[in-house]
Design a protein that fits this description.
Elements (H helix, E strand, L loop, with lengths): L1 H13 L20 E2 L7 E6 L8 E7 L4 E5 L10 E2 L3 E7 L7 E3 L12 E5 L4 E9 L7 E8 L10 H10 L1
Parallel strand pairs: 1-3
Antiparallel strand pairs: 2-10, 3-9, 4-8, 4-10, 5-10, 6-7, 6-9
Length: 171
């Protein structure tokens, strides 16, 4: 019985903890970084679509200050965000460029538009991170306006040079 309890304990502790106010069951590493954002203390917006994107997701790099709180939302009920989405979104943050999510929100429970997201995340260290807009299911895609804010960073978000030249060919 002790062995079973030890295994269960270890399995429970091995599950990553996700920040956010709702379900975080749909979090996956991003495929690539598609653009860059620069958070400021006042909400800004970025709009786009995940339709036709690889893995039906869109990822932005950003610079974060260690210990500072960042907010990303597609739920229009988040005061001042100016955000929305036409589909069931999931938002995750991961180390740059694309790693295991350290924060995720799939369904913000206080949103009047059901299945929209709101992630409040604290940067564990200063550096570059990525935020991904994704859909709940393998077919979940649509248009979005994501509101984002957080501590301004002195560094510029990093985007690998080779990706920029490849993206320019298709934009």
């Amino acid at each position: 019985m002790k062995a079973v309890a030890s295994v269960l304990c270890c399995l429970i502790l091995a599950v990553p903890a996700f920040a956010g106010d709702g379900d975080s069951s749909f979090c996956e590493p991003c495929l690539n970084v598609d653009g860059a954002i620069s958070p400021t203390p006042v909400f800004q917006q970025v709009s786009g679509t995940t339709v036709g994107q690889p893995n039906l997701e869109y990822t932005y790099s950003f610079c974060a200050v260690g210990g500072a709180t960042y907010e990303f939302a597609t739920c229009p009920d988040v005061a001042g965000c100016g955000c929305t989405a036409s589909y069931d979104t999931a938002i995750s943050v991961q180390p740059f460029p694309c790693g295991i999510p350290s924060g995720c929100n799939d369904d913000f429970p206080n949103c009047s538009l059901i299945f929209r997201s709101h992630l409040v995340w604290t940067a564990p260290a200063s550096g570059n991170y990525s935020v991904t807009i994704d859909g709940f299911s393998a077919t979940g895609a649509g248009t979005y306006t994501m509101g984002y804010r957080g501590a301004a960073c002195q560094a510029t978000p990093v985007e690998p040079a080779s990706w920029g030249s490849l993206k320019a060919q298709y934009e």
